Amino acid sequence: MKCQHCEKPATFHITELTGPSGPVILHLCEEHARIYLSQESSDAPNNALAGMLAKQLKLEQTAEQLAQLDKKTCPVCGISFAEFRQAGRLGCSYDYVCFQEDLEPLLMNIHGSKTHRGKRPTRNTGAPDKQHELIQLRREMQEAIAQEQYERAGELRDKIQSIENASAADSEADPPPETSDG
Amino acid sequence: MNLEDLAGKCGEWLRGSGPESDIVISSRIRLARNLAEFPFVRRASDDEKAQIAATTQAKIESIDSWKNVLYLDLDRLDEVDCQFLVERQLMSREMADSSGDRSVVIDVNERFSVMVNEEDHLRIQVMCSGLDLRTAWGQIERLDDDLEQKLNYAYHDSLGYLTACPTNVGTGLRVSVMLHLPALVITREIEKVFRSLQKINVAVRGLYGEGSQFMGDFYQISNQITLGRSEEELVDTVSEVVPRIIEYERRAREFLVNESEQDLHDDVSRAYGILCTAKKISSEETLHYLSKVRMGVNLGLIRSIEMETINKLFVHTQPAHLQKLRGQELSVADRNIERAAYLQTHLAPKGGDHRN
Questions:
Q1: Complex ipTM above 0.90?
Q2: Which positions in chain A touch B145 (Cβ < 8 Å)?
């Protein structure tokens, strides 16, 4: 991995936990790490991740490809790749699917891997398709309300409720809730 | 049980016991989890955040083994209470500073807490005193299993647990050990030590301080990556690195004692003297001198104070704790006076001639 500020190898990996937008990871060479660490009240670059992304994308893609990629939008939560690059945070779990090939180089850069090898949920966590649909429908309902399309919002709300009820019924496979108050 | 009760108590990680507790303050593990049916927090509407908080609370209330917990709705807490929870390390500073529907669930014995609607829907954390990562992992895995029975986590077959930031994806696991390394700082060996750790994928961060001010002597070591290794492997990575750092710190302390015991003893005693006699003192100054005194106690240069007292003072002299303990809001100037008084009560030698 290279330093975020120059071409030297990054030998310091610093995680800033106090950034306003959450933890920020810095990959720095010795020289830049010293400069960074010696700043007492560090005005840490909040978008180190975004910087890393931008740099990496620049290396691998032309400006045109980049502009194209920036416009790519998640159909479920509506976040664009440009918004992700700026904030360094994804919008929903479906982003990992729809931006998968764009995220892979980043994951390789951060983790040196793109395959989970740890713990797995012990029970079926539900149907991802339905879950993504719920996220999308709720967003569409919000948009409909914002545009004062109340009829459409009502339809969407009914649809959301029917999916929620169905999935609640599914997860009642657990023992029924206790009803006695003792 | 409320926050006032909590303030006077001494949480699990403040006990100052546990393996290697002369150098290791605490071991902490957190897991980032998200609910599959909702967008990540940044992208969630107010309604969705409220739904996430409500769903989570309802599900947690239905877990039989989680009875001794407090549910705190952050919108209903004042600034001092929020700051208090941050100082106690029961929640993050980002959590205190952000807005919207968010809550924190706290075990009354402070062994664990769950932040709801921080960067991820759930941030589960477990804390132990001293170096005890395997116990911490065992505990947090059980908590995670309990939650997983009730909630649908966002999970991907090849990417693992999905998180708002790609730096946490996979295990969602962050293992952190907080170390007190004054001798490595004095001997200027600290950078060299950290440089020798670079290849092992651990991150180092300075710690403590009001605002974002960097305070020397306290460092946090944590795993760098979260994807591609199992949780046990990640825990082991940190577990194996920490004893090496402890060894370096012990050697540096030994060196200081052998080469310049008088200087060291002088330095430590002066720090002790200031803490015992000052009439007003800032929290930065307090941390600075407490750090020296802590090392002095560990090296047997100061014998009249318990380690637990020192550990407690690190936290109890922070702004929100002082105000909670006093039971009223205090200005910065008043806090400095209150802090000095508090330190004197807890540190000053009782009666008569006192020699270290």
A1: no
A2: 122
